[in-house]
């Protein structure tokens, strides 16, 4: 009987950390600037990119190029469905079948915030792969790989490093889940 309870608690605790991660992006900032912070993020298929309006009136629209400032031709292109004033939060779920090691872009559709050809208020979403857990993967040519989990990512014209990988946060959750499951097993055994 005790073994059954321990097994049930162990499986339940494993389920507690198998959820999608939230990758946070601020829309505008405390200075009132028209920016996405960070402007480059990495998410895994199944994660959610959570946009939080901090200042100003902004929108979030998926685009096919960092400097296009035009809605993507994809039939299911992501959009916040309008421009909104802070405070607001909107989530962009990364499809579970998204192709790893690819990227897409987003921009603010408010007039003057994104300028075709030069960009402006725009950002990059890198879709990570299982090996991009935030650690250093082997770089092409045998050199040192970046420690931000983007070793297998195609180059992007945007500057700045990618935000901490959601996979790193998932790994930390796994560690917490193992500790929780051990505690549950001990508690079930004592009962």
By CATH, the superfamily of the domain at 23-128 and 154-164 comes out as Cupredoxins -  blue copper proteins
CATH architecture of the domain at 23-128 and 154-164: Sandwich
Name of the level-1 CATH class of the domain at 23-128 and 154-164: Mainly Beta
Proportion of helical residues: 10-25%
Based on secondary structure, the structural category is alpha+beta
Number of helices: 2
Output the radius of gyration.
Answer: 20 Å
Poorly predicted spans = 11-17, 133-167
**Strand-and-helix sequence, N→C?**
HEEEEEEEEEEEEH
Strand percentage = 15-25%
State the shape: elongated
Organism: Rhizophagus irregularis
Signal peptide: 1-20
Biased composition (Low complexity): 137-153
Region (Disordered): 137-164
Describe what this molecule looks like in 3D.
Strand 1 and strand 2 form a beta hairpin. Helices cover 20% and strands 25% of the residues. It is elongated and about 65 Å long. About 22% of the residues have low confidence. It has a domain of 117 residues: Immunoglobulin-like (Sandwich), CATH 2.60.40.420. The longest helix is centred in the last third of the chain and has 25 residues. It is of the alpha+beta class and 191 residues long.
Describe this protein with a few key phrases:
single chain; 191 residues; alpha+beta; Immunoglobulin-like; four-stranded mixed β-sheet; 2 helices; 12 strands; 20% helix; 25% strand; Phytocyanin domain-containing protein
């Amino acid at each position: 009987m005790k073994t059954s309870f321990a097994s049930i608690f162990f499986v339940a605790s494993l389920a507690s950390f198998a959820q999608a991660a939230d990758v946070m992006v601020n829309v505008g900032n405390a200075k009132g600037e028209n920016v996405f912070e960070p402007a480059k993020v990495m998410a895994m298929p199944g994660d959610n990119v959570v946009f939080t309006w901090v200042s100003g009136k902004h929108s979030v629209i998926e685009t096919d190029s960092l400097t296009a400032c035009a809605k993507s031709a994809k039939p299911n292109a992501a959009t916040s469905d309008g421009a909104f004033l802070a405070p607001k939060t909107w989530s962009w779920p990364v499809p579970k079948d998204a192709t790893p090691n690819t990227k897409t872009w987003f921009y603010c559709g408010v007039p003057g915030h994104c300028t075709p050809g030069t960009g402006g208020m725009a950002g990059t979403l890198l879709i990570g792969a299982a090996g991009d857990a935030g650690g250093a993967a082997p770089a092409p040519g045998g050199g040192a790989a970046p420690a931000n989990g983007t070793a297998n990512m195609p180059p992007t014209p945007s500057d700045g490093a990618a935000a901490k990988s959601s996979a790193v946060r998932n790994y930390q959750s796994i560690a917490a889940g193992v500790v929780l499951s051990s505690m549950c097993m001990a508690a079930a055994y004592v009962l």
